[in-house]
Specification:
about 525 residues, Beta-Lactamase, 17 helices, 4 domains, elongated, about 25% strand, Heat Shock Protein 90
């Protein structure tokens, strides 16, 4: 019985190893041996000398970036030159069936008794899973860094917007109050112009606060299809000369839990963005649908959880977004519209992202219509079915009031503006520059005050703490809360404690008159 040679035994063992083995003669790389696993890794089962002679080209060896692997960096060449074991981690194999795997190569030079390298043995390990995990970690880190960068900028923008909002509010109220006292036609026209200007400025500050996510939404079921339907005429006027189509097909009218005003802002910003992309001619399609996702879309930005979602999509057939700009489109003040009367502020998409993330959703940039242009897809968690909302109560604007109102605000300019407006509506007014002063005034005026207009954010005793202290004095105290931020969780928590109403600054004389009438009735 013939005894197998050592070479045969080693070859049989190597064929069963879960590692690809390749052996070549030095210095020319003449193929000597490859085991079965090497053929499986390379996708060339039944490998032979004729099939694998050479280096990068026949083996399909590429860099991670997809370039042919440089010959001078090949494992065989480096092992010869460096005369030591080398480890290479940046190789991707492009197989004949077009599949790809990532490999780690250990190349060991073999020398004879004279120290001359005669062969090189290379072991290949499949590290595709390891590389994919590293890619995902890198993507996650990049997203986290981008989120942190946006949050830091948002904090700054939100602080500036809040202070600016107070100034706009004071101007708006003073203009409104003066308008009630004058019959001079020219002066009235000037005051109405001031009101229009402050309203436009207020829109900008709301965008900044939305981007900063400081103006969080008030959670309420909203039918997205109905929101878009109500905006159809306005959107059509915005896209004059552009083909605008609506394909609204979400389940149960696309109900989500969020703030209707902010969702309207998302719709308008994305449609305006599409209008600018097609530059006056072209096609825009607005779509809604319901889908069930096991995970957020890989290329999306946001905090979407798995489950049923409502997809809102605005697609255009314009020029599309350059690859170099995709990573920056959600950054505040970044805009490609830098010239002419339609020069952008760079806040549109940043505001959209802030609102979408505040609604626990995500946004994705994809190819547009027929593969051209851009599609902006917003994913929002689906909400429970809702009944159609009842018709809201409408009060008569500028109704003359009676009694005394206590105005509490630490900002003197704002306090004076609110005080003047309330007096113009017929009420008597007391002022307090903070929570402690307000409590003292209320304690010293038993039965005299018909209501309190209270700012939410104040140094010392906050709006919430002030309300609780007033409620201790009078469980039936009537409070109208006001804030530079829109309805958020903190505001809702104070309303849940018993505060009668809420106004977001800047508000108009009409809104103030209506809320005071309801407060004192």
């Amino acid at each position: 019985m013939a005894i197998p040679s050592a070479t045969t035994i080693i070859a049989a063992l190597a064929d069963d190893l879960p590692v690809g083995i390749w052996v070549a003669r030095a210095p020319n790389g003449e193929f000597i041996y490859a085991n079965r696993m090497f053929g499986a890794l390379m996708g060339t089962a039944g490998i032979s000398e004729a099939a694998v002679g050479g280096y990068a080209e026949p083996y399909g060896i590429f860099t991670r970036g997809g370039e042919p692997y440089p010959e001078h960096r090949m494992p065989f060449v480096r092992a010869l030159e460096e005369k030591r074991v080398v480890v290479i981690d940046d190789i991707t194999i492009h197989r004949p069936d077009r599949s790809r795997i990532d490999v780690r190569a250990f190349a060991r030079p073999i020398a004879d008794e004279a120290g001359v390298i005669t062969h090189v043995v290379i072991a290949f390990f499949d590290i595709t899973h390891e590389v994919e995990l590293a890619r995902q970690r890198e993507i996650s880190q990049e997203r986290e860094q981008r989120t942190q960068r946006l949050e830091s900028i948002g904090t700054l923008a939100g602080g500036i917007a809040h202070d600016f909002n107070n100034l706009i509010f004071a101007i708006k109220l003073v203009a409104g109050e003066t308008l009630l006292r004058t019959h001079d036609a020219r002066l009235r026209a000037d005051l109405e112009l001031i009101d229009s200007v402050t309203e436009r400025a207020a829109t900008l500050t709301r965008s900044l606060l939305g981007f900063a996510r400081l103006g969080k939404h008030r959670a309420a079921p909203v039918a997205l299809d109905e929101v878009i339907t109500a905006m159809r005429e306005l959107l059509a006027r915005t896209l004059v000369g552009i083909s605008l189509e609506f394909r609204l097909g979400a389940d149960d009218r696309g109900v989500v839990v969020g703030d209707q005003a902010q969702l309207e802002q998302v719709v308008m910003n994305l449609v305006v963005n599409a209008r600018d992309a097609v530059q006056g001619t072209g096609r825009v399609v607005v779509t809604t649908r319901s889908v069930v996702l096991e995970a957020a879309p890989p290329g999306s930005t946001g905090s979407l959880s798995p489950g049923k979602v409502v997809v809102f999509e605005v697609a255009d057939d314009g020029a599309g977004i350059a690859a170099s700009e995709r990573e920056r489109v959600f950054e505040p003040y970044f805009t490609t519209k830098t010239r002419g009367p339609d020069r952008g502020t760079g806040l549109g998409l940043a505001t959209v992202l802030g609102i979408v993330e505040a609604h626990r959703g995500a946004i994705e940039i994809a190819a547009g219509l027929e593969g051209r242009g851009t599609s902006m897809r917003v994913f929002l968690p689906a909400g429970p079915a809702i009944e159609r909302p009842a018709t809201p109560l409408i009060s008569t604007a500028h109704a003359r009031g009676t009694g005394t109102i206590l105005v509490v605000d630490d900002d003197q300019i704002v306090r004076k503006a609110v005080t003047g407006a309330i007096r113009q509506l017929g009420y008597e007014v007391l002022e307090a520059g903070g929570g402690e002063e307000a409590v003292a005034i209320y304690r010293g005026s038993p039965g005299k005050l018909r209501g309190v207009v209270l700012d939410m954010i104040m140094p010392g005793l906050s709006g919430r703490a002030t309300y609780l202290a007033l409620r201790e004095l009078d469980p039936q105290v009537r409070v109208l809360l006001m804030s530079g931020y829109t309805m958020n969780e903190e505001v809702q928590a104070i309303l849940d404690l018993g505060v009668r109403a809420f106004l977001s600054k800047p508000y108009s004389m009409d809104a103030l008159a209506r809320e005071l009438e309801l407060l004192t009735t």
